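request received
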Amino acid sequence: MPKPTTTTFPLRPGRAEQIFPTLTAAQIARVARHGRTRPVVSGEILFEVGQTVVPFFVITKGQVEIVRPSETNEIVVVVHGPGQFTGEVNMLSGRRSIVRARATVKDMGEVIELDHDSLLSLVQTDSEISEIIMRAFILRRVELIANGISDVILLGSTHCAGTLRIKEFLTANGHPYTSIDLDRDEGVQALLDRFNISAADVPVLICRGEVVLRNPTNREIAECLGFNEGIDQTKIRDVIIVGAGPSGLAAAVYGASEGLDVLVIEMNAPGGQAGSSSKIENYLGFPTGISGQDLASRAYAQAQKFGAQIMIAKGARELTCARRPYTVRIDDDRRVPARSIIIATGAAYRRLDLDNLSQFEGAGVYYGATFVEAQLCRGDEVVVVGGGNSAGQAAVFLAQTARHVHMLVRAKGLAESMSRYLIRRIEDNPAISLRTDTEIAALEGQNQLERVHWRNRQTGEVERRDLKHLFVMTGAAPSTQWLDGCVALDVKGFIKTGPDLTPEDLTTAKWPLTRPPHLLETSLPGVFAVGDVRGGNIKRVASAVGEGSIAVAFVHQVLSE
Ligand SMILES: Cc1cc2nc3c(=O)[nH]c(=O)nc-3n(C[C@H](O)[C@H](O)[C@H](O)COP(=O)(O)OP(=O)(O)OC[C@H]3O[C@@H](n4cnc5c(N)ncnc54)[C@H](O)[C@@H]3O)c2cc1C
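response:
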């Protein structure tokens, strides 16, 4: 039996009541109506590490300890007493548990046990208890991440693109991990020897303490951690939403909360472009701003609370549009059927036209400026390329930790492309220097970016700087390649919807109905496009969220046709 150690949660004062609240007698009675009350004996395991679809327990008599076992010891994360409850946010998705729950009682204890569906029904119907449980679940996950209590060890190096990709993927999926840096941390050799791996294999992911994955793809990580277990891919859904950026997540929240059977298919991780934003300051209701990652993880939990299922690291490859129900072919070649589709695949960054760019992607060239990247370039000089709001935001954010930010724009100024509040912050910040009429001319380096050349487009003069970090924020192209002629696109490749569809578009598409397409409906009946993938979109989180929710209203109409 491993020797237990005490909790590692250094909770701030006042925080404990939110993370580990105690329900009142009246609240416990309401929970009891959704489950069954049963006795527990001392030492009884209520759920185990690695178990999927974990039940939810409210303790009514005795105690339940939550532990994270390892080969040598057992960390006691918390001991729940009467009125307290088990669980964290992965209980909503049915993902594997990373902790064990064990009853510790003198004689006989007692718990109320709810299965996954009963827990969802409770949080969907009782708003007071829902608020307590959802807040505790989310905060518990935050504490697990902050304290590195996890079933994943990442062995990597700061100079390695694969390490950064894996960190970004785990972070965007809200999965806690312990990171060990080959170049900095002690005791690495012992770990390498134990798992029979060499430094040349990095990045290596040790998954659930047993599976060793060498430079795994995001899909392999998702499979090993069981992100998509329990999702039925054969059932005909009311709506499949492709893409889990702000527009797709909004559609999932509204669709599921209004009783639709919703499946979201996401090729990477929830959040989309917004997930790569350090701080969104113009989204209604967040006067002090919110990071894209926080917004996405809240929306993700909210969608799951209402019963939406979200498939991670599975891209849509094809829409089979000849007959209904439509099907979406996903990465592993399975076809998932649905009565209606919402396309929310957004847009992806444009890459710079440089021959050796890919050599430095993730090894000095980045497309997002979040806390993960900010850690990598702390104290260094960085370059940000682009004149839009995303570039402005990145420059202001990075200037807090970098030594200096060089901002390059091809245009003559920022006024045409950036919000006034950001322009002012850039102008007022001595740590940012703006170069207009300027573009990147070349990149140099061995394994890592070492030098950047930029050219003034007016004078042709080239400046060379020893810089190791380049942030590329130069606009985005729509992610519509997978649609292959199923829906009408505009000249730039964005999806045409509603009133933008001309009579010629509808004739070419053989529009079969007497009614015209609904707002946000494409040239294919029952298939909608929302957010940044739609022609004429506004490129804002708020508009993407608005369109995702509006589309759901039309899905109801289409389903009743
Ligand atoms: C760095 C940055 C900062 C920004 N800051 C702000 C801001 O402060 N305020 C503001 O209002 N807006 C901001 N924006 C713009 C805003 O983020 C976007 O308008 C918004 O994210 C669009 O949402 P979306 O859901 O339509 O698309 P996206 O956010 O692009 O999401 C699309 C999702 O679809 C997935 N996907 C793509 N293809 C497939 C496929 N074939 N199969 C499955 N999944 C697929 C992608 O992985 C992605 O998760 C910012 C953008 C960036 C990049």
